[in-house]
């Protein structure tokens, strides 16, 4: 029987207590090792859903289970620890630490998770060596770049650093929020090849979110966000309402 890695049931979320829910999702299940492409227009609430799945946000109703663990049973600190161990996230805004170098940003998840640190060191002789392996696959291992503060890099370079940071330590779940938006076509293709190869080797589940349907072909399953969000069907204007991202 296939293992459910992400399971959502009767999910409801609103930005304030008295506002209309912007997300109402009856059910969504993602299986171990699956590559799922979640497609939707900018501003429809895709990033909000990712925040709920990662435990950054909490729903007003419903149940979210990650690797069999109901997130509602964890404290805020518990959710942070669980996310550090089991999620690699490429944020739409990157969320890099501007004063840290490229290498320091990439290995950062391993400072917060002993589990990911152990897996990274099993793959390469050191954390830095594993970071360099990933950066090299993204054409970012140049000696003149890796020790620069990330705020000195171009937007496209920062996006690739964020990708390497998400991949280090072979997390069970990789969440990618518009991860190719600042890449040219060649780097985008190389990035997708790396993403799939790393997920295949680690047995990771990939949740890839984008508005760009040209990227969806190699994925196992495509889900239209507005088709699973009952709130959007009932009130299309609500999908672009307060806080929708």
Would you kindly provide a written description of the structure presented here, covering whatever features stand out?
This protein has a single domain (4-240), classed as Rossmann fold, CATH 3.40.50.300. 37% of the residues lie in helices and 21% in strands. Helix 3 (102-112) packs across helix 4 (114-123) and helix 3 (102-112) packs across helix 5 (127-137). The chain has helices at residues 46-53, 76-86, 102-112, 114-123, 127-137, 155-167, 185-202, 225-228, 230-234, and strands spanning 4-13, 23-31, 35-39, 61-66, 69-70, 87-90, 173-177, 205-210, 221-224. The two termini are 35 Å apart. Strand 4 (61-66) and strand 5 form a beta hairpin. By secondary structure, it is α/β, with parallel strands linked by helices. It is built from nine helices and nine strands. The strands form two sheets. Strands 6-7-8-3-9 form a five-stranded parallel beta sheet. A four-stranded antiparallel beta sheet has the order 2-1-4-5. The longest helix is centred in the C-terminal third of the chain and has 18 residues, at 185-202.
Key descriptive features of the protein:
alpha/beta, Rossmann fold, five-stranded parallel beta sheet, four-stranded antiparallel beta sheet, 9 helices, 37% helix, globular
């Amino acid at each position: 029987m296939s293992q459910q890695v992400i399971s959502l049931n009767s999910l409801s979320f609103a930005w304030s207590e008295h506002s209309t829910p912007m997300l109402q999702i009856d059910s969504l299940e993602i299986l171990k090792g699956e590559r799922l492409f979640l497609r939707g227009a900018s501003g429809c609430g895709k990033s909000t859903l990712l925040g709920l799945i990662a435990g950054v946000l909490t729903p007003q109703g419903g149940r979210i289970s990650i690797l069999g663990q109901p997130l509602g049973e964890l404290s805020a600190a518990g959710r942070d620890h669980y996310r550090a161990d089991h999620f690699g996230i490429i944020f739409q805004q990157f969320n890099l630490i501007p004063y840290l170098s490229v290498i320091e940003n990439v290995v950062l998840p391993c400072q917060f998770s002993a589990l990911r640190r152990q897996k990274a060191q099993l793959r390469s002789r050191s954390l830095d060596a594993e970071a360099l392996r990933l950066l090299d696959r993204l054409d970012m291992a140049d000696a003149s770049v890796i020790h620069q503060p990330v705020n000195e890099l171009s937007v496209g370079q920062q996006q690739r650093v964020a990708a390497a940071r998400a991949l280090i330590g072979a997390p069970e779940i990789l969440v990618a929020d518009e991860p190719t938006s600042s890449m040219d076509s060649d780097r985008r293709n190389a990035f997708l090849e790396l993403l799939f190869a790393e997920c295949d080797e680690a047995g990771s589940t990939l949740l890839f979110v984008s508005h760009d349907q040209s990227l969806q072909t190699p994925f196992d399953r495509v889900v239209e966000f507005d088709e699973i969000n009952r709130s959007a069907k009932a009130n299309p204007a609500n999908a672009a309402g307060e806080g929708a991202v």
